[in-house]
């Protein structure tokens, strides 16, 4: 039906030598890819690595994350988010903080700062408490000194009264003895008139006896105390009068 001179067939087989060459190239390519793979990837050809089961291993199960690692990861993510927010809003935060500080400074300058007023009120309260405590301490010290002075004054006054009484008793005793002696002498003179030298001798004895009584240690000591006390009182009065006159002269206009 079709003659040999017609068009050649559409599908023609390649020559045998060409097929053999193609197979050799494929084998060389497979061998090259085999040696290029990692020895730790366990991806060897099936016929060499799985001779028994003829199937590959199943992929490894995912490792469960521990609680500490999970917490650490969450904290790292949170810190990174905070850093990102701060970097995005740092200018706004700076402006707000600067505005707040300027407002506080203005309030302090005008005397209307709340914290400043609270601190001043606390210091004022402490000041009042300190002044009150100092007043109470001063009142206590003054009352203690007054009480001590009154006790010493009463003690000295009682001792002075006792010494005055003893001196008065001694003087009364001496006066009574003198009176008795004078009476005896007067009665004796009525009965017997003595010569002048005996009368002088008797008077001398009486004076000597009186001097002996006055020079006795108890009476002498009491008299010295009384005399020093009287001199002190007089000197104190004289000094007081001098000071009063001096102040009066200063106050008196020229």
TrEMBL record:
Disordered: region residues: 1-38, 188-216
Cellular compartments per GO CC: nucleoplasm
Localization of this protein: Nucleus
Keyword check for Repressor: yes
Residues forming coiled coils: none
Biological processes annotated in GO: regulation of gene expression
Record bears the keyword Repressor: yes
Biased composition (Low complexity): 20-31
Pfam families attached to this UniProt entry: Sds3
Biased composition range(s): Basic residues: 198-207
Keywords: Nucleus, Repressor, Transcription, Transcription regulation
Protein name: Uncharacterized protein
Organism whose genome encodes this protein: Mucor saturninus
